[in-house]
Design brief:
- By secondary structure, this protein is α/β, with parallel strands linked by helices.
- It contains 8 helices and 21 strands.
- The chain is 26% helix and 27% strand.
- A hairpin with a 4-residue loop joins strand 4 and strand 5.
- Helix 1 packs parallel to helix 8.
Length: 322
């Protein structure tokens, strides 16, 4: 009887899992369900696509559904997984037309990723407020800059995305301010002596760093200003870089155990607590070699490695995530 692997999510972890599973077991039927319009895209390259350094967004796409089909992996775009039923080994899926159906699996890889954190403030969904996650979001930012010609940008958050987008928007000629709760960029990434060099460079490039948190987003239909704890700052576009939350709703409803970080708990084989169900990427936590504790590290490098392990294990291999 043919064995079927279903992968929920088609970006870094999901496509790594699908490709590795297919290579490990050629007789395995592999299906990927992705709710977005693209698979296997380089999310880290989006700031450079927005800046124009990557002129064509298609240069960020590593694999297409057609290329994966040639390798024996069936990819279904605009298909959202709604529910997992571990008792019947099925997944309920909704397609682009709104039709719902179920597919049975022998093994399942959950790679549902993470979603950007938005400020819990009035007006946080006004036009002109963006958060980078799917490739569509990067295209939307580029289109907005090209068509609306914004002059003043506020970047909320000082992590990787915040710093990269501050550089990008400044290079496009916008006035840029960064609103950071701690007042420090890359606080959890760099030691103070290195972080100071980055902040000095940002200042030399005309980026203003403000310590504070947003309390309101003002505007009628489009963003006009950010109100923070220490003042009001005009802005005709806002880029959110406040971090992400793992997408675990479908998993927790199915009985998949979550860990202390709020992401899916996995072992070194990327197995969850449910039989034949694996998880990988930004929706998972894993053992941290340095701290010895579970960690949620939503980065593409981690996701790709975890995806390869999950796919290998789901296909009967022996790889582990070290």
């Amino acid at each position: 009887m043919t064995q079927r692997l279903i992968v929920i999510g088609g970006v870094a972890a999901g496509m790594s899992a699908a490709a590795r599973a297919r290579r490990t077991n050629r007789s395995l039927e592999v299906e990927v369900y992705e709710k977005g319009s693209f698979i296997s895209f380089a999310a880290c390259g989006m700031p450079y696509m927005i800046a124009g350094e990557v002129p064509d967004y298609r240069d960020l796409i590593a694999r297409t559904p057609e290329q994966m089909a040639a390798q024996g992996v069936a990819v279904h775009l605009h298909h959202e997984a709604l529910a997992i039923n571990p008792a019947t080994h099925t997944v309920t899926i909704r397609d682009a037309e709104g039709n719902e159906f179920t597919r049975s699996y022998s093994r399942l890889v959950i790679a549902t990723g993470a979603s950007p954190i938005r400020p819990a403030t009035p007006g946080s969904h006004l036009e002109g407020i963006f958060a980078l996650r799917p490739l569509e979001s990067g295209l939307a930012v580029r289109q907005f800059v090209e068509e609306r010609n914004p002059q003043k940008a506020m970047v909320i958050g000082g992590g990787y995305v915040g710093v990269e987008m501050a550089e990008t928007l400044r290079g496009l000629g916008l006035q840029v301010k960064m609103l950071i709760r701690s007042g420090k960029v890359l606080r959890t990434t760099l030691d103070d002596d290195m972080r100071t060099l980055v902040e000095d460079e940002l200042a030399q490039q005309g980026v203003t760093i403000i310590q504070g948190t947003p309390s309101a987003c003002e505007g009628r239909d489009r963003i006009e200003a950010i109100v923070a704890s220490i003042g009001r700052y005009p802005a005709d576009m806002v880029l959110l870089g406040m971090g992400v939350r793992p997408n675990v709703e479908i998993s927790s409803h199915a009985g998949v155990a979550l860990g202390v970080t709020g992401a899916i708990a996995t072992d070194k084989r990327m197995r969850t607590n449910l039989p034949e169900v694996y998880a990988a990427g930004d929706c998972t936590e894993a053992h941290h070699l340095v701290t010895g504790r579970p960690a949620h590290i939503p980065l593409g490098t981690t996701a790709n490695k975890q995806g390869r392990v999950a796919g290998d294990q789901a296909a009967g291999g022996t790889e582990t995530f070290r």
